Amino acid sequence: MADRPRPFDGIDELLERLNRQIETAARSWETQLDDRSRLDLSMGGAETSLDLADEGEAFVVTVDVPGYESDDLELRLTGRTLAVSGDREHSQEFGGEEDSYIRRERETESFSRQVRLPDPVDADAVQASVNNGILTIRLPKHEPDEEARSIDIE
Fold first, then answer.
1. Do 63 and 47 touch, CB atoms closer than 8 A?
2. How far apart (Å, rounded) are the C-alpha atoms in residues 130 and 63?
3. Each residue of 102-140: pLDDT tens digit?
4. Which numeric CATH code is attached to 39-140?
5. Region 33-51 average pLDDT
6. In the beta sheet, which residues pair with residue 83?
7. Domain ranges in the chain?
């Protein structure tokens, strides 16, 4: 009976190959996620589009915000992280006068996006504007101080 093959002889080799393939795939997925999430720090699915461009002396962020007014939007820069959020209430009224409405519907919409900037920016020189449903944020890069400074030793 020594000549008869054992059914589980090749299973160790098969499991080892499968394990190597899974590890390779996992490393590939992690790399893709790291590349994608290194800049985009938003939680959940993005409901609004955000573009980040490097224009040499400044980063320019454009965000689609159709129907949002300037007062509906909030921008916050913390270190190298830019947070953009918006909240608005949209109402539709059907019927006559406001006191005797038959049907009135309100809808609240909001979004929140965060993006990590590749380099430091000058927070005091940031400019933002909304035009035709597009929020444009210009973030001038922080110029490194090349002037030599003396450092006191305590």
1. no
2. 9
3. 776 677 788 888 899 988 999 889 999 999 989 999 999
4. 2.60.40.790
5. 59
6. 76, 114
7. 9-38, 39-140
